[in-house]
Amino acid sequence: MATYKLTINGKNHSVNVDEDTPLLWVLRDQIKLVGTKYGCGMGQCGACTVHINGKATKSCITPISSLEGKKITTIEGLSDNGTHPVQEAWKAIDVPQCGYCQPGQIMQASAFLEENKNPSKTEIREAMHTNICRCASYNSIEKAVEVAAKNTR
Amino acid sequence: MKNIDSKGHVTGTSIYIDDIPTIEGTGYGVVFDSPCAHGKIISVNYSKAKALPGVIHIITHKDIPGENQIGGILPDEELFASQEVHFQGQPIALIIAESEQIAFKARKLIEIEIDKKTVITDPREAQQKGQLIFPPRTFSLGNTKDSWKDCSHIFEGKVDINGQEHLYIETQGAYAQPLENGNIKVSSSTQGPTAVQRAAAKVLNIGMHTIEVDVVRLGGGFGGKEDQATPWAIMAALGTQILRIPIKVILHRMDDMRMTGKRHPYSADYKIGLNKDLKIVGYEVTFFQNAGAAADLSPAVMERTLFHATNSYFIPNVEATAYSCKTNLPPNTAFRGFGAPQGMFVIESAIAYAANELAIEKQQIQKVNLLKDGDEFPYGQIAEGVGLSPAWETLVSKFNLKATQKEIASFNKTNDAVKKGYALMPITFGISFTKTPMNQARALVHIYSDGSVGISTGAVEMGQGVNTKMLQIAANIFSVSANRIKLESTNTTRVANTSPTAASATADLNGKALEKACNALAKRLKTTAASYFKVDVGTIQFKDEQVLVNGNTSDVSWNQLVDMAFLERVCLTENGHYATPIINFNKDKEKGHPFAYHVFGLALTEVTVDCIRGTYEFDAVKIVHDFGKSMNPTVDRGQIEGGLVQGMGWMTLEEIKYTKEGRLLSNSLSTYKVPDVYSAPKQILIEPLETEGTDMAILKSKAVGEPPLMYGIGAYFAIENAIKAFNPAYKSTFNAPFTHEKVLMALYN
Lengths: 153, 749
Prior knowledge:
By secondary structure, chain A is an alpha+beta fold.
């Protein structure tokens, strides 16, 4: 066990956990930010995606010891009241079905659009293929990323 | 109407089972399961595990006050194995500890000795050894034996279909809390709250009235949480009963995959006979369903296979027999389509084989045999409102089938290493639970004295948008805005004796019950208004939260009317009950009218196969679908896209592998591939079939949950079509899924 100082959604937190504790469980169990979801625990599904210094990262395979001094953003901190262009596009298209994977999808898409403001369809697929949606809302996700990109430009 | 859950979903504020705040002192449960697929338990030593600091208790079959039995249809499944184990992953005990980590550590300290017995994983082997879950059943029409003499072409063959892992991204789980007087509340991620309540009452040896089951929503179900959400919920409740503390049981992904059943693998033999005009005259089929180690829902799944054995075709002579075979796999269970997809894949394979042998296109046989109004299904129901030929014509014209065929042919002429293929896949899917008594539902509606509305139904929201549809029904009848209506959680204390959210019928059943309740309340309020205005009740309407008299806006608002009614002591609560009329089925004769109606449609799947690598990409799937009159096109479109891609996954990428010893190899997301965005078709076009709908469907909006999954079967045959363009010597094996590996073999075999 050790104490780690973390910056999450602009707030400072201090947690006392084992050094190999994945960020996902610190967020969910310690900080009580439960918008980030557990899906597979091996970085294969993307439900746990958050931003670390702006980069989309799978929190279920990110040990807490690697995060001191880094800026962590979760779905709860992406915007005030769901107003990020990606969230707006998601709502406009009604992308979610069961909704469970969608915080991860949105964190993936929002980090991607920071790097690429004008993505092609191929680039959207390449960016989003890391996130599984078992309801298979993929075609809606692709459209929503395009809409978000357009509205951000 | 927009999906009422979208905002919560995109902000991460929607609540799923593991998001419920945990109460101080909660115990965390981890399941200890069998490491062996079949054997007698000689001994289990828990002493080291119990001695680990932080372990609170280990529950086994010995702690059960009631029956150690969770079988829903047949009493053949123990909650915790007592004497024998029948599959790897079968629960033996629940370790309860102060944290999940401690419970996992304790699990590793449990020592078990098992006297191993013979393991069967193949359904045909089980059938040969007489290992059946229950006796076989046969559906028949006409006389196949006499029909062969009328056939110019007769073909026989074998078909194999693998299972499918549900892979709901939210794993199974439940959270139980003690209430006063020994009562227990269970929050469960289940499609069947009443199933959980009933089974828990039996195991805990208490009345159903003392167990409250609550469901907010599921992070995906797809059938996997119809029956198989039950054990974890009972384990949590049992822990709470014994220890009087809250108990949480959330399965980790690999535990979930190892312990739970999947879509049933099937093996089948068929014989198909056609006359010179390509009309199918006779069809015989024998299905070997791999049920796994216990009945679970297999009898009902097997029945639906028989109901859908002829898919969208009229065949005058049919004999379809099915065996539910007991093997040492986890009990296989409901999965979107519920046995129908397997039945359909077999007849589509039979037609494909016949077409191959006759050197004609598969759709030539499909087209001339399409079901029409007045045709009899092998189970006795007469087809009505059949949309198949109209769907075919619409597809040919709207999506220009001929141009697609031409483009594919010309592409294949000019490309050696890449080939395109296509297939047509019609669907006919019966709507209703085939067990008639399950076709009932209730809804409880409160109008609060401020004019706002609360709705409880037996429907579980699992992504299919049923809550949005329920809200729409109430909003239309009362003409109040959506933000004044709340959809409550699905809770057995408010709506009792629910059927599971399954069979695509949930919006119909619960929606009709809700419609009745809302209409009764509206009538009461209109009577109050009529008396106030001293007019006939028929002149009163509601519009935009205002009362209209003879079509004119009055000075009485909805809120004022509700208040007026309350002061006059009018009941502002109503319980609606709906039972589907007409339907019946006689199991002795295997005849009846089991379905309220059928859903029809046709899909054109276009694929490009990389003939060097064996990989493939789906260029487009173009669908003509019978929505009736869709009450929510956005929600329904999502169901079509999602069902289609899930069906395509089953037919292409998703490969479940067990060893001969019954050990699951495809046991995580790194060894089991489900569709990602790359696997989705680049384009999904959906054209609604112009129909009147049916009064048996809620607001004439036909059920949409399961039928589209079977469009995915087209993926298999589109790939075959492309392979044939590369390798004319290719011989079909009809062994799904068509993984990249199998495609590569087929290209060069």
